[in-house]
Amino acid sequence: MTTHNPLTTAPPALISLTTLLSLLFFLAVLLLAILLSKYLLPRRHSRPTLLLHTWHLFDFLIHTVFEGSYLYHSFFSHTTLPPPSSDYPHPASLPTSRKSAFLNHPSRAYGAAHSTHPTALLWQEYSRADARWANTDTTIISIELLTVFIAGPLALYICYLLQQSQQQHSKNEERSAGNNKKWFWMTVLATGEIYGGFMTFAPEWMTGNSHLDTGNWMYLWLYLVIFNGLWVVVPGWVLWHAYGEMRDAFQALNEQKKEKEV
């Protein structure tokens, strides 16, 4: 079902300055991840290792810098609401009791929509596609807490493991079992990324995409499908690659056991 985000006021084909800056920021982070990966990895590194390192470094930067700013605005950016009156608050816009107020502050409205900071403007732009990101959607915030404080550092740790593994390989040293744990942690992170994406959009699919603007081609295909689909396709590739590595490792282990039995 095609839905329209009520926060979207721009014509469907309009690309604003904020839109261009958002895209440039995204591309700048990707370029930084590529350059840093080439610098941090040994000169002799495999192409899959470069791709894995670049992805996890990019993942760390996006989770920490970009999504971290969302959490900041969710908890610290707010505006004071007018005092209740006979016709205010309206049930559709404000909590009707302290029990349902975010952070137990019924007199405040939190979120990026209530800030003029440059990072808040980025989230206001993205909220044209998904209105939940402009305010305090507790499902989104709960997922982002795990993403920023667990997935982000874990992605950086995986980069460290990849660097250590390649340094050993370039020195023709035998790879230790400790370095092979990178495949376990990549599997954990990739599974979490896919699960987080499902939990982000499943509530919308079950409620008719009430917060999504699927009637605007740019918001639908660029913001919702491509940007979010990236965290499904790449983690899926990581899981496939990790499966192959772990399968080969277990096969080699079984062969060693058979040789010892003989």
Question: Can you describe what's shown?
Answer:
- This protein is an all-alpha fold.
- The protein has six helices and two strands.
- The chain has helices spanning 17-40, 47-76, 118-126, 138-170, 181-205, 217-261; strands spanning 78-80, 108-110.
- It has a two-stranded antiparallel sheet with strand order 1-2.
- Helix 2 (47-76) runs antiparallel to helix 4 and helix 5 packs antiparallel against helix 6 (217-261).
**Total DSSP helices:** 6
How far the N terminus sits from the C terminus, by CA atoms, comes to: 64 Å
Number of strands: 2
State the secondary-structure class.
Answer: mainly alpha
The general outline is elongated
What is the mean predicted local confidence, pLDDT?
86
Q: Write down the Rg.
A: 22 Å
Most strands sheet: 2 strands, antiparallel
String of helices and strands: HHEEHHHH
| Strand residue percentage | under 5%
